[in-house]
Amino acid sequence: MKKLAVYALTALLLVTGIVIQAPNVQAKTKVAASIHKKDLDKLSLTGIDRVMFVAHPDDETIWAGNHIRTHKYLIICITNGNNKKRMKEFKAVMKKTGNPYIMLKYPDKTNGKRDNWNTSRDAVKQDIKTVLDYKQWAMIVTHNPKGEYGHIHHKMTSQMVTEECLHKKLENRLMYFGKYYKKKNIGKIKDSKHLSKKQLKQKNDLFKPYQSQMKVKDHLYHMFPYENWISYKKWHQNKKTSVSNLLEFFCYMA
C-alpha cells in the first residue's frame, strides 16, 4: 500500500505539473525586482494589449513565432540580459517582429548549472505583478504548467504568471503554449492544425539570428509547425479529468 501511495503521488505530480523545489544549494543574496513603471512608460505600448512572459530568449520564437510575427505583444524575457550574445540575438528577432520587449538579467545558468532561481524568484514575481498591473491586458501568454518538455525555468515561469493571474482574477485571459510531444509521438497530436509551408518558412527565417541555439532548434524542430495554444480553463479542465481518472484507478487497485 505504501508503494501504491508513492506511485499515486508521483503520478499526480506529473499530471498536474506542480513544481517542487529542491533545497537551496545556490542561494546567495536575494536580488531586487528589475521592472518599474517608468521602464514600461518608456515603451511604445499604445494599442498593444497582449503580453508574453518567456523564460529564455528563443522561447518566444520556438513556441510562438507565428503569433509574434502576426500580432503585437509586449515580450518579457526573464533571463540572459547580461549575456551579450543571447541579448544580441534576441534584439535582432524583436527588431524583425517590431514587438516591444524587456529583457531581464535573471540567471539562466550559475557556475555551469541551471540556476534554481532561489535568489531571484521573489523579484521575478514582483516584475510579473508590475507588468500585469500596468494596464488592462486582453491576453496574457506564457509557458504551460508542464514547462513544455519539462524545463524547470519554464515551469516556474508558468507557475508565477498563473498565480498572479489567479490573484488578479485574470485567468480567463491566460493562454499557455501548446502541449509538447516527443518526436516519436508527434502523430498523437489531436489538434492537427499546423502552420502552412509559407508560415513555417517565415518562422525559420525569424529564428535565424539565434545562431547559438541551433542545436536547440534541431532538438525541438518537430514542434515548429505547431503553435496550438491552450487556455487556462481548457488546460485545467483536462488536468482535472486526468486526475479524477487517476484517483479512480488507484482506488480500484487498492
Automatic annotation (TrEMBL):
Arranged from A to Z, the UniProt key words for this protein are: Signal
- Which residue positions does the secretion signal occupy? 1-27
Has keyword Signal?
yes
User: Per the database entry, which stretches of residues form a coiled coil?
Assistant: none
Q: Which Pfam families does the entry link to?
A: PIG-L
Against SUPFAM superfamilies, the record matches this protein to: LmbE-like (SSF102588)
Domain of life of the organism encoding this protein = Bacteria
GO molecular function terms noted in the UniProt entry? hydrolase activity, acting on carbon-nitrogen (but not peptide) bonds, in linear amides
InterPro entries in alphabetical order: GlcNAc_PI_deacetylase-related, LmbE-like_dom_sf
What protein does this entry describe?
Answer: PIG-L family deacetylase
